[in-house]
Amino acid sequence: MERAMVHLIGAGLTSVMQGFGIAVPAGAIEHGHKVVALLSREQAPSAVALLERLAQTLRRDWQRSGLSREVLDRHTKALPAVMERNRPPAELIQAALIAGQTQPRTGESDSAPTRQLAAEIIALVRKTADLDRDGLDETIVFMMLDRLYAALASEITSIDSIRPMCAAYLQQRTWLAPPTSPTPPPLPPAARLKPVALA
Fold first, then answer.
1. What is the pLDDT of residues 156-176, one digit of tens each?
2. What is the three-state SS of 43-91?
């Protein structure tokens, strides 16, 4: 999986954890690729399959956009930091996740909540001039955010299955520090984590 795609998927996965009621520390979304690395190290077949499906879905959507590879790469690389600095309310994320449980992914006519989520981030970005500073196009950013959250919402059941692992990792508070060994610290049993309902 390309490095920029790994970072974007990691940012998306970390971002939607807020919709499950999980506290996401400052910096965690921008460094969400560490969550992807964790899932890959654990080598859980369902988690690896989820990452591959998300990557395939986003590649297909990017190709359909007709944008050049250079433009797509530039925006893909910049989005994790933009998402970190401009976090939407957890309620909007939760609404998108709930919609993903009941509305199938149907291409261009995906559920309104994912578009609302993308629009909220754009509204926040306009206040900070993030896009101008990074040389990004607002229309492209909106499209990519909408596609990212639509892909994540359509995988909500699979994401819920990795939620305990992600929550435990984020709660360690040491996740941002450079690893001291190739083996990640042990995670607490999922049974100790209090389940978080979507509704």
1. 989 999 999 899 988 885 555
2. CCHHHHHHHHHHHHHHHHHHHHHCCCHHHHHHHHHHHHHHHHHCCCCHH
